[in-house]
Amino acid sequence: MVKDFVSNATLLIASFSMLGLIFKNKPLHFSSPLSTRIYWGLCFGILGNILMSFSIQVDSRSIADLRHLAIVIAAAFGGYVPAMISAVLIAIGRIVLSGFSETSLLPSLGSLLIGITCGGISLLHFNRALKAFLMNLCGLFIISIMFIMIIDDKEILKHVLTIHYLISLIGGFIAYHFFVFVVDSNDAHNQLKHSVIKLKETEERFRLIAEYSSDMITMHNERTEYIYISPAVKEIIHFEYPELLGKKMEYFIHPDDIERTNEMFERALHKGVAESTYRYCSKLGDYVWIESTLKSVHFQEDGSKKVIIVSRNITDRKLTEQKLQEANELLNRLSYMDGLTGIANRRYFDETLAKEWLNSFSANSPITLLMFDIDYFKKFNDTYGHLTGDFCLQSIAQAIKKIITEALGYTLCRYGGEEFAIILPASNIEEGIKLAHQIQETIGSLKIPHSSSEIADFVTLSIGLASLIPTSSSKSQELIKMADSALYLSKTKGRNSISINQ
């Protein structure tokens, strides 16, 4: 009898394995579609009838088997519907196999009662394993009542119940956990299948985008080597796919941009995203401007990271930006330039003096201002005309500009009309006097005729100098007033002279 019960349990478990394979795409859950739960209910009902076919004959009126476990598993995993369907089929099968009689009617009613009880327990809200154990106990209790009613021999009854309980509890435990394995395996299979489908769809989408995108899409390993390149590479940088595969990005990037681009790659690798603009050497040997967006992707299969880069050629835009920048710089220069003489204008003078005043204050160093104008310039214009007067201003400005080198840091400006100014930062009055004499000598060497001058036959200059060490209470306007006063003093002294105010 023990051997027969074990065979019954083995048949039950083997059937679960086969059902799992047949319905691997229709796993049994409480939330499964009604059609799926009906399929499983029918299968469990058929399984119960098969178990009855291999039942153990206890006496002339009764048989024993593990058919109730089919109902228990159906209820534990699928709920009320498969439990009742399997119970009804088992009840019908019992009558069909044994004929309609009191002996067959009682087990049939017992099967229905087990189905109702297990279906009811399945509606309770607690652990599924505990529910299955409780269902098995209830089923065994109902079967025990039937055996008590049918079997008269107490020794046989005791023997049957002992073996039935033992095999049912052990078999039920194994059957439950095996079916858990079957369900979990099917779920894992379906999830994997779904993941593979999604992956294929994603791959197809990516390839479709990459194949038809006007942007160049590339994938790189952690060493920046190319492992995928989209067809747009030929249009953007004129390379063929195999010519870049396995090579590092830095081989093609302008030397001045390599460090910045590597930093962007590392940022994308460790922080997820980055952007970079750089020059890339195309197959034609010229450098094109590339704008790239970088994003890292983590591959769980091998734990590696890849960086996907979407790049576009922005050379035309860069050239336009460069021309615009040059135009803005030119406009900026022109806004600070005197249109007639080509030297700095009054606006530049005001801004430069304010800046150098602050620098001198910070360094506690002197700043000197030299102001000069052309003697009897109005008479010059009256005598020679305004065009000649303009030429005179230009000649003087350019002659002085030659001796005001950038190395000295001096700034020559047209202050207004025929008046000019030179800012001498970090310079004392002695350096200013030396420059003033040099200017007078330079203008004298030009020998620009000035027949209307009351002091010479050639153009001469009157010069005024002032020097200060800025303090927190002083302002740059004080220096201008002092230099202007010195210039006025030179004029009152008869012109063509140098005066100092300090």
Automatic annotation (TrEMBL):
Which keywords does this Swiss-Prot/TrEMBL entry list?
A: Cell membrane, Membrane, Transmembrane, Transmembrane helix
Q: Which domain of life is it from?
A: Bacteria
Q: How does it sit in the membrane?
A: Multi-pass membrane protein
Chief location category: membrane
**Signal peptide residues on this chain, from the entry's feature table:** none
Q: Coiled-coil region(s) at which residues?
A: none
Occurrences of domain PAC (ranges): 274-326
Q: Residue limits of the PAS domain?
A: 202-272
As for subcellular location, the record says: Cell membrane
Kindly list the residue ranges recorded as spanning the membrane.
Answer: 5-23, 38-56, 68-93, 105-126, 133-151, 163-183
Tell me one Pfam family matched here: PAS_3
Q: Where is the GGDEF domain?
A: 365-502
Q: What InterPro entries does the record tag this protein with?
A: Diguanylate_Cyclase (IPR050469), GGDEF_dom (IPR000160), Nucleotide_cyclase (IPR029787), PAC (IPR001610), PAS (IPR000014), PAS-assoc_C (IPR000700), PAS-like_dom_sf (IPR035965), PAS_fold_3 (IPR013655)
Q: Per its record, how is this protein called by name?
A: Diguanylate cyclase
Q: What is the originating organism of this protein?
A: Neobacillus rhizosphaerae
Organism lineage: Bacteria, Bacillati, Bacillota, Bacilli, Bacillales
